[in-house]
Amino acid sequence: MTTETAKNQTTGGELSVPAPVEVPPVGEEVNLDANENYFNRELSQLQFNYRVLKQALDTTHPLINRLIFCCIFSSNMDEFFEIRVAGLRQQMKYGRETIGADGMMPDQALAEISRVAHDYIREQYDILNNVLIPEMEQQNIHFVRRREWTPQQAEWVRNYFEEEILPVVSPIGLDPSHPFPRLVNKSLNFIVELDGKDAFGRETGMAIVPAPRSLPRLVRLPDDVCDGGENLVFLSSMIHAHTDELFPGMEVKGCYQFRLTRNADLELEDDLEDLASALRGELLSRRFGDGVRLEVADNCPQELVQFLLTEFGLTERDLYQVHGPVNLTRLMAVGGLVDRPDLTYSGFSPSIPKQIRSKDSMFDSIRKQPILLHHPFENFSPVVDLLRQAAKDPQVLAIRQTLYRTGADSELVEALADAARRGKEVTAVIELRARFSEAENLELASRLQEAGVIVVYGVVGYKTHAKMILIVRREEGRLRRYVHLGTGNYHAGNARLYTDYSFMTCDESISDDVNKLFQQLTGMGKALKIKKLFHSPFTLHSRLLSLIEREADYGEKGRIIIKFNALTEIRMIKALYRASQAGVKIDLIIRGICCLRPEVPGLSDNIRVRSIIGRFLEHTRVYYFGNNGRPDVYCSSADGMERNLLSRVETAFPLDDPALAARVREDLDTYLADNCQSWVLQPDGSYIQNQPAEGDERLAAQLVLLERLTGKN
Hints:
Blueprint: H1 3-8, H2 41-54, H3 63-93, H4 106-138, E1 141-143, H5 151-165, E2 172-173, E3 188-195, E4 206-210, E5 218-220, E6 230-234, H6 235-241, E7 251-262, H7 275-286, E8 291-297, H8 302-312, E9 319-322, H9 334-337, H10 362-368, E10 371-375, H11 381-392, E11 396-403, H12 411-421, E12 425-430, H13 438-451, E13 454-456, E14 463-464, E15 467-475, E16 478-486, E17 498-505, H14 508-522, E18 534-536, H15 540-554, E19 559-564, H16 570-581, E20 585-590, E21 607-612, E22 617-618, E23 621-625, E24 632-636, H17 642-646, E25 648-654, H18 658-673, E26 678-681, E27 687-689, H19 701-710
Parallel strand pairs: 1-6, 8-9, 11-12, 12-13, 14-25, 17-22, 19-20, 20-21
Antiparallel strand pairs: 2-4, 3-4, 3-7, 5-6, 7-8, 10-17, 11-15, 15-16, 16-17, 18-25, 19-23, 21-26, 23-24, 24-25, 26-27
Helix pairs in contact: 2-3, 2-4, 3-4, 11-12, 12-13, 15-16, 18-19
C-alpha cells in the first residue's frame, strides 16, 4: 500500500472475513451457532490497532500527537504479540487447541495474523518515513542520520559514546565459551559481523551487542553543534557509528539492529498458598519467555536473519524486517525532547461541578445529592479529596478500597497510608495480577502494609477488577457509609487520558451492597444477596442477558445502547442477535474487539457497531436499556468479555437519579452523532471512518464533551 492510498483510505484494512450469511427463507430460524456469524477475536484486535495507526494520518491531530499515535500502535502490537500471539502458540505447543465461535483453529489464526500484521507494520513504517518525518523536517525537527552528521556533530557523538555508552555496553562474542546470550524481552540488540582474530586468537565472525537499557533511545543534539531547530539522534546510530571501538583490532563488516518479542503472559496455578511469592517468581521469567516475534533491520543479510530465527526457534512467519528503528515506541520521547507546544494538543483545565466547588466537605456534598464525574473532562481531584478528607476526619472509622492500576506515586495511596497511621481501619484489596503492573502492585502492597493497612490480594482465580471505595463515618449517633464506584482505575494519570465515569453516593442500598462485596473479597462464605448492584462472577452476566431479553420482548419498541471496550462473550452476542431479530434497535459503541457481526439480514439487521478513536482513550462502560420509556442506565467496570462477566470480580451500578441517567444518555447520543472520529463496523469485518456529509458540521464526540464540560475546544 502506498502512502498516498493510505491517506485516502477510509476502511480499516483487509482481513479474512466469514463467508456471506445466506438469508434464510421467511419463517426459518437463523443458526446462531454458525461460524460465519462471528469475527475472530485476535483479528478484530488487530483492526483496532490499525485504527489507532490511521490517526497518524489524520491532520486534525497535532503533528507530534500523530507521531505518538504511530508509537502507540507499536506499543499495542507489542502487547498483542506478547499475550495474544503467545497464547495461540502455547495452545499449539501443548496440544490444547481451542476453537472459538468463528471456527478458526490457532494455526489458521496465526497465519492470518502474520499476513495482516506484516501489511500493517509495512504501512506504519511507510507513514513514518514518508509522511511524519518529512512533515517534522518542515517544522525544523530533524532526526539526524549518520550520513548527515557535520564534523562537529560527529565529534559530539564520539564523546557521548565514550562517556555514556562505552562504560555500560557489554559486547558478547559468539564462540563455544560464549554461547548466544539470553536477551531480555523487547530489548534493542545488534548482531555484528566480524573479521579477524581477537587477542586470544579467537575467530568467531559474529557478536551480539545488547543496547544498554538504561540509556535513552533518542538523544537531543546540543544547539551549539547545530544550525538551529530541534535535532535528534538515535542511540542505535551512535552504536552503529562506533561498533569498531567495541572490537578493537577486528574488522566490523556489518552491524544490524534486531529485537525479540517474548511470551509475557503469566501463568499462576489456582491453588497457590502464597500469591505474592509465586508472582515474584513469575515476573522474573516474563523477561525470558519463548520468542514470538523477531524484528530485524531490513538491510540485515539473509544468513544472519536465518541464524537469528534458528536461535529463537522462529520461522519466516514470525519475522518482521523493518525500514527504520526496530522499536518505534521509544519515539514517544520526542514530545519531551523538543519544545514545540504548537505541535501538540493544547492543555485544558478539567472542570469541577458546582456542587463540590463550595467550602462544604465532600461528605456534605454527597449527602445533598449523588455526584457523577466524567473524566478527563471533569477533574479526578474530588475522588482524591474524598479519600484525603476521610483520612483526616476524626468521624471516619474505616476505609476500604480496591486497587488495580494506581501508579507508583499515587495520592490515593498516600491518603490510605495516612488514614492507617491515624488509627483508622483501612483495608486495601490489591489485584497483584493487573497485567504489566504486577511489580508495581507488589511494591504498593509492601508500602501500605508498612503503614498499617490491611492488605488483601483478592480471590485466586478471579481478578478483582471492580473499582470501589467504602468509607464508614459516624454522624449524629449513627454510622453512614459513603461510596465511590468507577468505570476506570484509581490512577490520576489515566484519568487525564482515559474517558471514565466516577460515581459518589451515600445511598443506603448501594453502600450496603458495596459493604457485602468487600466482605466477600476479604472474608469467606456464601455469596451474599445484593440489592442494586450487578456483580460478577455471580449476577452481572445473567442480569445483562435478562435485560437484553426484556428489550426483545418489547420488540420494535425496545432500545439498547451499550458502550464497551470489547465484546467477545458469545451468549451475550447471541442475546443481542435475538433482540435484533425481534426488532430492537441496538447501538454498540465498542472501542476495540468486537466478535459480533452487525447489519446481516435476518441476523443483526438492527445492530450498528461503531468505534471512537480520538485524543482520549475511550474507557467508559455504559449499559442503556429503554425499558419501554422507563430507561435503566448502568455504569460498570466490566466489558462484554467472558473473563469480565464470568471470571473476574466486577460491578455494574445503576444511575437511579433521573438527572444523572439523562446526562449519561446525552453523552451516548453525542458518541452516536460523531461523524469524524467514529469508525463503523461493516458486515464483512472492515471498518469505515465516518465523514461529514457535504454541508454538515464536523462533530467529534470528544471535542463536544470537552467544550461542554470545560468550555475548551
